[in-house]
Amino acid sequence: MADTFTFELVSPERLLISEDVESVVVPGSEGDFQVLANHAPVLATLRPGLLDVVLPGGKERRVFVRGGFAEVGPESLTVLAQTAIDAADLDNKALAQEIENAQEDVADAHDDKTRDQAQDTLDRLKQVRDMLGL
């Protein structure tokens, strides 16, 4: 059996996951990275994407996240996400709303840097939609 570590996923509304896992792939703003037991400490910001969680026994779970950050330690991973929706619960309507919100952020941007960041978020949301086939 693979080593496990404690994974907690927290959104503003509630604690969504708190359990021992084998691995988690995190959509970091600098690129995806995989967390395993005994990982070096890392603090990373999140981009819109999917957390791929592998539970003991090989069962997998996917969670869509948008915004927030991940704190990694040798025995734990805590993800604080602005938005977190279990992929099993993510439907076309919910993702369409996220895309619409991002389009409004692009339109409302007051400077190039803000507009570029909003456009990046929009592009990544569309990638998630395409990955999930919604």
Walkthrough of the structure:
Helix 1 packs antiparallel against helix 2. This protein folds into two domains: 5-86, ATP Synthase, domain 1 (Sandwich), CATH 2.60.15.10; 92-132, no CATH class. It contains two helices and eight strands. Strand 1 and strand 2 (15-21) form a beta hairpin. With 134 residues, it is of the alpha+beta class. The chain is globular, with a radius of gyration of 15 Å. The N and C termini lie far apart (35 Å). Helices cover 28% and strands 45% of the residues. Strands 1, 2, 3, 4, 5, 6, 7 and 8 form an eight-stranded mixed sheet that branches.
CATH architecture of the largest domain: Sandwich
Q: DSSP strand (E) fraction? A: 35-45%
The low-confidence runs, each spanning 5 or more residues with pLDDT under 50, are none
SS class? alpha+beta
CATH homologous superfamily designation of the largest domain: F0F1 ATP synthase delta/epsilon subunit, N-terminal
What is the helix fraction of residues, given as a range? Answer: 25-40%
Q: Examine the coordinates and then state which fold CATH places here, giving the name of the CATH topology of the largest domain.
A: ATP Synthase, domain 1
Distance between the termini: 35 Å
Q: What kind of sheet is the major sheet?
A: 8 strands, mixed
Order of helices and strands: EEEEEEEEHH
Short note summarizing the structure:
This protein has about 130 residues and is α+β, with helices and mostly antiparallel strands. It has helices at about 90-110, 110-130, and strands at about 5-10, 15-20, 25-30, 30-35, 40-45, 50-55, 60-75, 75-85.
